[in-house]
Amino acid sequence: MPDFEENRRPLESGIVTDFHDRMSYAGYLCLDGLLAQQRPLSKPQHHDEMLFIIQHQVSELWIKQLIHELTAAIHFVQQDQLDPCFKILSRVKLIQMQLFDQWAVLETLTPSEYMEFRGVLGHASGFQSFQYRKLEFLLGNKNRDAIRVFSHALEIYQDLERTLHAPSLYDEFLRHLKRRGLAVPDLCVERDWSEPYHKNEELVEVFRLIYEHPREYWDAYEMCEKLVDVEEYFQLWRFRHMKTVERIIGFRAGTGGSSGVGFLKQALELTFFPELFAVRTWLKQK
To answer: pLDDT for 81-106, tens place per residue?
Structure first.
């Protein structure tokens, strides 16, 4: 007969088991509050609504971390320190990959299953994610009209307005390159930061110099490639979002009043760092 007692790992004597007056894992992570925030509204409760809630809550947690990382990156660039940004932006890319892969989980939700609880969302929509809006502002996709939906929440509105009027990560990088003596056009470093960024052909030449002399401008060259990573994975995230919505609701209007898939497709045309992609066309062959 097999010895079932062997299929058990004994606790080591040093493992702490008394947490009456100690910080515990659950206490440090505030799990009592965190795990109480999943509150399905469908009645009777539909099994798949829990997935829908957790998917979006987890996304918001990751976006919070992205904001944390990009805010730090902006600070380092302002101090003319590019090296610390490399690890930060590598982490940003990996978080973006997590966000991308999450859509596969939501795609297990079939159209008929979603329709059973979609009505409880009312007009709630991802367009109303103030963290997502701040994330886009930090990366340079400025849109003053997009913050109108937050006018009911003064603190959030004011925070977004501050971010809207502040230089983005790309803006700060261009200012850094200007301080280094590179021929960054004045229009790129002295402008209304609340306005969307527009491609500047003169700036393409600055990046061509950097890309054709990577050893001389190694940190700037590496920063350019890290930014390209961020934009590429942001676009992949947008695309996967659009395809997930198309798969689940087809071409219905969004709960927040948008055209749904059509509106999401428009976002695929938005760009953060246009010159970093344009420069690739004009690099000289060695």
So the answer is: 999 999 999 999 999 999 999 999 99
